[in-house]
Amino acid sequence: xxxxxxxxxxxxxxxxxxxxxxxxxxxxxxxxxxxxxxxxxxxxxxxxxxxxxxxxxxxxxxxxxxxxxxxxxxxxxxxxxxxxxxxxxxxxxxxxxxxxxxxxxxxxxxxxxxxxxxxxxxxxxxxxxxxxxxxxxxxxxxxxxxxxxxxxxxxxxxxxxxxxxxxxxxxxxxxxxxxxxxxxxxxxxxxxxxxxxxxxxxxxxxxxx
Length: 209
Prior knowledge:
Layout: E1 9-11, H1 17-33, H2 78-87, E2 91-93, H3 99-112, H4 116-120, E3 123-132, E4 137-140, H5 142-155, E5 160-169, E6 172-180, E7 188-196, E8 201-208
Parallel strand pairs: 1-2, 3-8
Antiparallel strand pairs: 3-4, 5-6, 6-7, 7-8
């Protein structure tokens, strides 16, 4: 691809509804691609519009996209540096993530790395975890989370949570998750609702399938 010299490339503010639009398009494409066994891979389908695609750990959920991911926190990344080399002064980045999205993603990355310290650092000292639809509080505070998750991570080294979709609004992030790699062979589906403040996740509600 030759650099563009007479066009201005602008990456607009992230919009949470794009994830749902992409999911619908993905299903439509998979329905067609499944009819043609000779199709081996899809290299790029809207990955720059889908927040979760920034993170390589989750790319398998989106048509095997292998492009760079540019939507997310306003920090310099190899992807954006490459785009600036390609487009020069015509490339501008203005995408942002809410605090709720950043915290939800940080704890997900730490969960998949079985990194207990990074995982707990995303949560408030007095975090509350609830089960839905019962409303029962199942955990209170970081110490209780450490007791629960330190052993869980140690006993499930192949643990992986795939983000299927995310909705963000204000101080809330709602994730649809698929957990695999458990030592007992189970697979889990859950919806996690994260409430945040300016620094931490303060409350979580789990709806388990």
